Here is the input.
Amino acid sequence: MKLQRSHYAVFFSIVLGAFLLFIAFSSGYYPVALVDFSFIWAKDISYPYYAAVVYRSLSVSENNSQEYPLFTPSSPLELRVVNLNELINQKLIAAANRALLPADELRTRLDEVAHRAEQNNRAFALAQNFFNMTQQEFRTYVLDPRAEREVLRAELAKRGITFDDWLRAEKQHHRIWIFSSRLYWDGERVRFVTEE
Here is the structure.
């Protein structure tokens, strides 16, 4: 009798474990990259990031800026690669900001930059109309990463370092792993395995 109960318990545990794994994976709770010892999860490369990247492309065409080059993705995987490269950059930028500035000063400066950008109602309207983003999603996925970048750019300029040179050097000094058989890290960016 006890043996039969333990069989049921083991079977139930296996089924429950498989179900929980299925839910976790279908919700994007699995790593796609590792920057030093910080994971980038599949859920982070979902719709809001797609919207943010495309939003940036639209704002580039409006502002004639070269910071974010205009692109037309030819496949969902290409858009995923662009998003993954951006997330890696964001991890490096956030780590540098935390290393260079005290936490209170960093939060204050990030809030100031994001607040100035929030005043641009046209940008939010664009994100809301095209991508159905809420104000909070717009702040999280578009404004906050842009604020992080601007704060770091200003801090590096004070030290006589250009942002692009810094980013290029940072990518060489950090361990970055990509968990995909179709993608790899070449020391500068994520690439398709078939690219040369």
In short: The mean pLDDT is 81. The helical segments are 2-26, 47-63, 76-100, 103-118, 121-131, 135-158, 163-173.
